[in-house]
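Retro notes (design track)

What went well: tokenization of the new backbones is finally stable.
What didn't: we kept losing track of which sequence belonged to which structure.
Fix going forward: every design gets posted as structure first, then sequence, in one message. First example under the new rule, 539 residues:
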């Protein structure tokens, strides 16, 4: 009987230990959790909902296979939805049984733009016939869009994978218990050789072994159940993104801002080198486009004419992005190239268009900007008639134009803090009038504010306002007794009108892009500007 019990104990030990070994080898869970799906051939784009890449512990890997160049781009899901718009798309919304993905179809237009290089993305990766993105971030509101050149059928399969953190907690205990039982059986075999004991002792030993056998039997019944109970099916996790924001989000992240800035600076540099207005169109608009285009025209006639300064992209000092959930969108950057500091305003007309440089102003040396909202939150975009400030944004520009025309002593001028730009304007006006009088001519000035305007709030209840003013100066020779005097023209007027002298009036136009800091109370202050020569003509 002793031999039988010892053998049983050793066999059971081998079985229990074997269960532990199997859980670490043949029955061990896969190293990765993988879910994949085929994409409908009619879908030109695939959208991955927020939280899908955070269903299990990161890093997660998103792999797409198809034909041609494929791009995976990430952005807040609201921006992705705006970019997809009315186009058809396949939307990955969750996990499906047996390693699949739940996909919902969105009907719509049969194509989308090629997503590669679009400014709206926070990041992107591309590849030929396949592309892979590794994700380590939080779910937040980040979604992903996948597409090729924009035609349907290019994306074939989408696969999500995660490192498998599943554990086999009973494997080691089973191996330990099994080993102990096997060794116990060996010991019992050794002890069974001692037959010289008294019969009473043998009966007592038998009873003791029966009691231990019962205990071992209970353990055998419990351990396998516990060991195998962890192998039951688990409920599939569901995406848990952040709640949709209740207020507008920041438009441009820091990484986006640098990418946009470098692209714009490169485009402007190339156009400046060739003085080619057409090269500006993809990346320049509004006042910035007008200033450069007319400067190119002047440059072709006046060789030594200086173009507007290069776009400073050496360093971003401030990402002054607007908080908005609609289009057009505005974002501003305070940048430096080591020589000067610039305030650059960019606009984006629609989700599928890139940002364009809208205005460029040099900041006054020593300018201390107010506290700017965190770029992750964004600054409020203000309407031209926004109140709550010393003056509305549009009135600030209108009054400054009046001040330039009315002079330093005007009531409009007194609404602004003194600045070198206006002082130089008034000084030049005085000198030109005196010179004109000596030459028997008269000069007139007209400053017309434009409606192109961008205003953003600050963190301390001030506003940063950028607007435009068109300045015209007209020099007219005097007429006396039916005779009209003549004007001797200097550079650049003589090149622009094509004459050295004239008896006609000469009108010179400049274009001013000006940036103001407008407090809640008190006086507005000019903090930056850029004036360019637009042209000259005979009247």
């Amino acid at each position: 009987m002793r031999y039988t019990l010892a053998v049983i104990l050793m066999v059971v030990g081998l079985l229990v230990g074997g269960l532990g070994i199997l859980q670490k080898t043949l029955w061990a869970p896969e190293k990765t959790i993988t879910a994949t799906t085929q994409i409908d051939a009619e879908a030109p784009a695939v959208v991955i909902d927020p939280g899908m890449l955070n269903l299990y512990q990161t890093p997660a890997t998103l792999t797409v296979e198809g034909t041609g160049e494929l791009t995976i781009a990430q952005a807040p899901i609201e921006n992705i939805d705006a970019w997809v718009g009315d186009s058809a798309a396949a939307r990955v919304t969750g996990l499906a049984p047996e390693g699949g993905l739940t996909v919902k179809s969105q009907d719509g237009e049969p194509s989308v733009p090629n997503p590669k290089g679009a400014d709206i993305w926070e990041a992107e990766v591309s590849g030929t016939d396949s592309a892979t993105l590794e994700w380590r971030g939080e779910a937040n509101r980040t979604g992903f869009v996948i597409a090729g050149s924009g035609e349907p059928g290019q994306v074939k399969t989408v696969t999500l994978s995660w490192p498998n953190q599943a554990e086999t907690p009973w494997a080691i205990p089973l191996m330990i218990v099994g080993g102990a039982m096997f060794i116990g059986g060996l010991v019992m075999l050794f002890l069974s050789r001692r037959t010289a004991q008294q019969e009473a002792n043998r009966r007592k030993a038998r009873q003791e072994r029966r009691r231990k056998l019962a205990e071992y039997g209970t353990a055998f019944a419990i351990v396998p159940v516990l060991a195998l109970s962890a192998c039951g099916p688990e409920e599939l996790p569901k995406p848990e993104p952040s709640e949709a924001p209740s207020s507008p989000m920041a438009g441009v992240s820091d990484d986006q801002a640098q990418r946009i800035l470098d692209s714009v600076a490169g485009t402007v540099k190339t156009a400046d080198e060739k003085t080619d207005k057409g090269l500006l169109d993809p990346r320049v608009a509004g006042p910035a486009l007008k200033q450069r285009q007319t400067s190119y025209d002047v440059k072709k006639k006046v060789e030594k004419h200086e173009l507007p300064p290069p776009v400073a992209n050496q360093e971003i000092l401030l990402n002054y992005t607007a908080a908005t959930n609609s289009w057009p969108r505005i974002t501003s950057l305070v940048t430096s190239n080591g020589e000067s500091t610039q305030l650059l305003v960019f606009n984006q007309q629609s989700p599928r268009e890139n940002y364009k440089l809208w205005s460029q102003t040099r900041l006054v040396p020593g300018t201390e900007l107010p506290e700017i909202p965190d770029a992750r939150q964004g600054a409020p975009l203000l309407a031209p008639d926004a109140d709550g400030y010393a003056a509305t944004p549009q009135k600030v520009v209108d009054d400054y134009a009046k001040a330039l025309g009315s002079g330093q002593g005007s009531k409009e001028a007194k609404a602004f803090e003194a600045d070198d730009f206006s002082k130089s304007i008034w000084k030049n006006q005085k000198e030109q009038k005196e010179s004109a009088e000596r030459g028997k001519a008269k000069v007139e000035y007209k400053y017309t504010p434009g409606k192109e305007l961008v205003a953003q709030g600050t963190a301390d209840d001030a506003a940063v306002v950028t607007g435009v003013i068109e300045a015209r100066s007209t020099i007219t020779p005097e007429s006396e007794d039916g005779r009209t005097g003549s004007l001797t023209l200097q550079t650049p007027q003589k090149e622009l009108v094509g004459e050295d002298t004239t008896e006609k009036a000469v009108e010179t136009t400049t274009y001013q892009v000006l940036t103001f800091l407008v407090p809640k109370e008190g006086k507005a202050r000019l903090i930056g500007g850029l004036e360019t020569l637009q042209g000259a003509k005979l009247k």
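Added context from the reviewer: The radius of gyration is 39 Å.
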